[in-house]
């Protein structure tokens, strides 16, 4: 039922595309940095969605440390709606799945310091053919936001037309603003290239169709982002969402999941977890809550990241980036290098192995564009700090499909 549309051809290099970042929809405290949420979509979907399961998730968000790590909202995706609107045109929660009503669950979440988000679509029907918001914007926001206390609205794309979508998201945002309540707004018409227009409309916007739980799927999507210059449309108050994170589903190794969150953090995307917290491992929880990772993802500047180079090494070794495969492996390694400006004059760097293990020598002055003579480098995943001369190459060793995450500052500005 989800719409499938592949974005454009793969691209190999961003070549330092530092486009001006658009002024976002809002400044602090609303979406000053990329949001973090938990979503029902992949773990509960339609068949397992009910208030008992969500109460368990709310409790686990607190007990696992995700809430204290900034995952402050439970986004209830498609399937929560009653089969029909009531006689007054109001859309309530499905009484079988939510016998206590949605307001009761919002209160349950609020008692644990959590907020609740709800799904809808601008059309008549949702992806699961439940009632949606066409012709009911004011009524829906009045009930869900003002009466129930919902603080996040996801506006999907199912069962819409291009003509409807051309104004539907700005229409919904106008109604949300009129409520004068702090509601984050996500819009998901990825096929309409929201990175070109949504920074004045949506706090979060989809930048890709659904991404499978596989290394090839999300690394391929990164090429799509470069081809479309998606990062140029993101900035404070308005952020890209590649897709809901599916860590722990089993489609990738722990190393690959770590690489995925590393590169998404560098890109400056929203982090929306779809992991089933009732069954996941501590290793997956540790990825979601890693302080160094989240400091990069949620950096106070709220800026996106850009690709520096995507290279085959040693075939295309440069003066600034050199590498070779680990001994005993194939004759080339394929690497992807990104950078993101962060607070205190720093730069975060993500270095990803796309095939096998690599031994790299990096010119961090070239990659970061910092002009200091001494650099302070923090390796986030290994928790190692180094002070070095800026002209000295920085050595990085990656295993297959591993990513390194660095934060780099002028040594005097840490």
Extended strand count: 17
Order of helices and strands: EHEHEHEHEEHEHEHHEEEEEHEEEE
Tell me the number of helical segments per DSSP (H or I, 4 or more residues long): 9
- Please outline the major beta sheet: 8 strands, parallel
Helical amount? 10-25%
Tell me the structural class.
alpha/beta
User: How much of the residues is beta strand, in percent?
Assistant: 15-25%
Describe the structure.
24% of the residues lie in helices and 22% in strands. The chain has 414 residues and is an alpha/beta fold. It has an 8-stranded parallel sheet. It has a 6-stranded antiparallel sheet with strand order 9-11-12-17-14-15. A 3-stranded antiparallel sheet has the order 10-13-16. Helix 3 (137-147) runs parallel beside helix 4. Residues 1-23 have low confidence and may be disordered.
Summarize the structure in short.
The chain has helices at 51-63, 102-110, 137-147, 162-179, 215-228, 254-267, 282-289, 291-297, 364-368, and strands at 36-39, 73-76, 115-120, 152-155, 184-187, 204-206, 239-241, 271-273, 306-313, 321-325, 333-342, 346-353, 358-362, 374-379, 384-389, 394-398, 403-410. Helix 3 (137-147) packs parallel to helix 4 (162-179), helix 6 (254-267) runs parallel beside helix 7 and helix 6 runs parallel beside helix 8. With 414 residues, the protein is of the alpha/beta class.
């Amino acid at each position: 039922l989800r719409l499938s549309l592949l974005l454009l051809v793969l691209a190999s290099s961003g070549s330092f595309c530092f486009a001006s970042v658009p002024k976002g929809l809002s400044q602090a405290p609303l979406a000053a940095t990329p949001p973090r949420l938990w979503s029902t979509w992949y773990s509960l979907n339609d068949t397992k969605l009910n208030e008992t399961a969500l109460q368990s998730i709310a409790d686990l968000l607190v007990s696992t440390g995700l809430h204290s790590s900034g995952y402050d909202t439970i986004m209830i995706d498609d399937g929560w709606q009653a089969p029909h609107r009531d006689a007054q045109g109001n859309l309530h929660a499905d009484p079988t799945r939510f016998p206590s009503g949605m307001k009761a669950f919002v209160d349950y979440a609020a008692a644990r310091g959590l907020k609740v988000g709800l799904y809808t679509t601008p059309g008549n029907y949702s992806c699961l053919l439940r009632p949606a918001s066409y012709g009911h914007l004011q009524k829906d926001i009045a009930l869900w936001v003002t009466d129930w206390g919902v603080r996040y609205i996801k506006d999907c794309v199912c069962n819409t037309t291009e003509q409807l979508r051309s104004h539907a998201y700005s229409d919904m945002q106008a109604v949300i603003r009129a409520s004068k309540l702090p509601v984050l707004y996500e819009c998901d018409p990825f096929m309409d290239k929201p990175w070109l227009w949504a920074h004045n409309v949506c706090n979060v916007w989809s930048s890709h169709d659904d991404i499978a739980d596989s290394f090839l799927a999300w690394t391929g999507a990164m090429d799509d982002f470069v081809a479309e210059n998606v990062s140029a449309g993101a900035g404070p108050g308005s952020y890209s969402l590649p897709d809901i994170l599916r860590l722990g589903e089993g489609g990738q190794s722990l190393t690959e999941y770590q690489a995925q969150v590393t590169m998404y953090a560098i890109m400056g995307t929203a982090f929306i977890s779809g992991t089933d917290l009732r069954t996941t491992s501590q290793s997956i929880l540790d990825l979601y809550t890693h302080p160094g990772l989240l400091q990069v993802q949620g950096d106070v500047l709220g800026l996106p990241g850009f690709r520096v180079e995507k290279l085959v090494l040693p075939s295309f070794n440069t003066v600034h980036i050199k590498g070779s495969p680990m001994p005993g492996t194939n004759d080339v390694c394929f690497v992807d290098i990104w950078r993101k400006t962060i607070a205190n004059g720093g730069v975060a760097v993500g270095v990803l192995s796309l095939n096998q293990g690599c031994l790299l020598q990096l010119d961090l002055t070239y990659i970061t564009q910092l002009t200091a003579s001494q650099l302070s480098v923090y390796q986030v995943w290994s928790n190692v700090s180094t002070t070095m001369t800026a002209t000295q190459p920085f050595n990085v060793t990656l295993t297959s499909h591993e990513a390194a995450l660095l934060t780099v500052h002028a040594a005097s500005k840490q």
